[in-house]
Design a protein that fits this description.
Oligomer: single chain
Number of domains: 2
CATH superfamily of the largest domain: Periplasmic binding protein-like II
Order of helices and strands: HEHHEHHEHEHEEHHHHEHHEEHHEH
Shape: globular
Strand content: 15-25%
Helix content: 40-55%
Number of helices: 16
Radius of gyration: 29 Å
CATH topology of the largest domain: D-Maltodextrin-Binding Protein, domain 2
CATH class of the largest domain: Alpha Beta
């Protein structure tokens, strides 16, 4: 039997060595790759308390699917007034197993941070909507005749909110006295209950800015605010019984006759958009009966998410998703707070929306709390 040649043995040995080295390298690199590969994002359910105006958005099937498929999140959204949620104690938040708060105001966030040392793990504004005054054609025409409202192009603006508040509302003028055909009773601006609902409270903040300062574009300090609180209570009492939530309040205003129920009604801009989109081809009656009046200036209602733990921080990132932001604007009228250029008003060609809006800042936390106390208890307005 012929033995293998030396050259053959050397070649065979070389092949074996290469194979062994290859296996070792493959195993080592594979292990390193496994060590560096992040673990799959776990499916997580979060409990979040938020303003009622976001209930439809958070119940949207497409939004829920995006949150689930892209971010592995299921949100247990529970409606609660902005200032009610941010004033819950830490023990109450823990007992209810709350992961995040989603108020409808930067002021509410400031109150939370003032009362909860350390604040949230993370907080970012993801949506926004300006405070507007809804009116009907008769009331709008009457206010235009008194030069309180101007029409520029297709949009309407309240150009002298201070005069409206002091001379017409506090002065107890009636709609009949200014020639409003078919409208009766005292001139007031109705809203949800500012002691419980942010859309009503944002109106109160705007009124306070106007009444307490000489410059409507500046927020009052605490001393200035205290001098104006009795007048604020007077305006509050003139409104009578008010709805407790933004969502139901606006719906009630529409279904009960719009301006025939209340000639002026304060709410979020997005509320009308949401109703028109939902009505689709049947939106003509809404559009014929409602005018959007933009106070100059107005206050933007921010919608910051306050993440109380690391998992809830993922919800902030998810709500900044471009697909979700687009749905929030096109279906529910929330302007994006994260993506410049997304809020194209041409999307809603039948709704006369303002592209650029003049705004003022809401008061600081100490003034906000003083105003809130006044709305809740007349004795604290002195």
């Amino acid at each position: 039997m012929r033995l293998p040649s030396i050259r053959f043995l050397i070649g065979l040995g070389t092949v074996i060595v290469v194979l062994v080295v290859g296996v070792v390298l493959y195993t080592t690199l594979g292990k390193q790759q496994d060590d560096n590969t992040p673990a799959a994002t776990p499916d997580t359910t979060l409990t979040c308390l938020g303003g009622s105006e976001k209930s439809e958005l958070m119940g949207d099937a497409d939004v829920k699917k995006l949150l689930k498929d892209k971010y592995h999140l299921t949100i247990n959204f529970q409606s609660l007034g902005s200032y009610d949620q941010v004033q819950l104690s830490t023990d109450e938040l823990n007992s209810r197993k709350v992961d995040c708060l989603w108020p409808s105001s930067a002021s509410a966030q400031a109150v939370f941070e003032a009362q909860h040392k350390g604040g949230a793990v993370r907080a970012e504004n993801v949506l926004q909507s300006p405070e507007v005054i809804y009116a009907g054609p008769k009331g709008t025409d009457a206010l235009m005749a008194k030069q309180l409202v101007q029409k520029r192009g297709e949009q309407y603006y309240i150009v002298d909110m201070k005069k409206l508040l002091l001379e017409y509302i506090a002065g107890k003028k009636t709609w009949e006295s200014i020639g409003a055909v078919g409208l009766n009773g005292p001139i007031t601006v109705s809203s949800t209950d500012p002691a419980r609902s942010n859309s009503g409270f944002t109106l109160a903040q705007l009124e306070l800015n106007i009444l307490a300062t000489d410059d409507v574009f500046s927020a009052p300090n605490l001393d200035q605010a205290k001098k104006a609180l009795p007048k604020m209570r007077e305006l509050y009492d003139a409104q009578g019984l008010q709805a407790r939530s933004s969502d139901s309040g606006f719906q009630q205003w529409l279904t009960q006759g719009a301006e025939l129920k209340a000639p002026l009604y304060a709410g979020y801009e997005n509320q009308l958009i949401q109703q028109v989109v939902a009505a689709g081809a049947n939106s003509a009656q809404i559009l014929n009966n409602v005018r959007v009046l933009y106070p100059e200036p107005t206050i933007y209602s921010d919608h910051p998410i306050l993440a109380l733990n690391a998992n809830a921080s993922r919800f902030i990132d998810a709500m900044k998703d471009s697909e979700i932001q687009t749905l929030a604007w096109k279906k529910y009228g929330f302007r994006s707070a994260t993506q410049v250029g997304l809020n194209d008003i041409a999307v809603f060609k039948d709704i006369k929306l303002a592209d650029q809006i003049r705004t003022t800042a809401p008061p600081a936390a100490d003034v906000t709390l003083a105003l809130l106390d006044c709305m809740k208890d007349a004795k604290k307005c002195q």
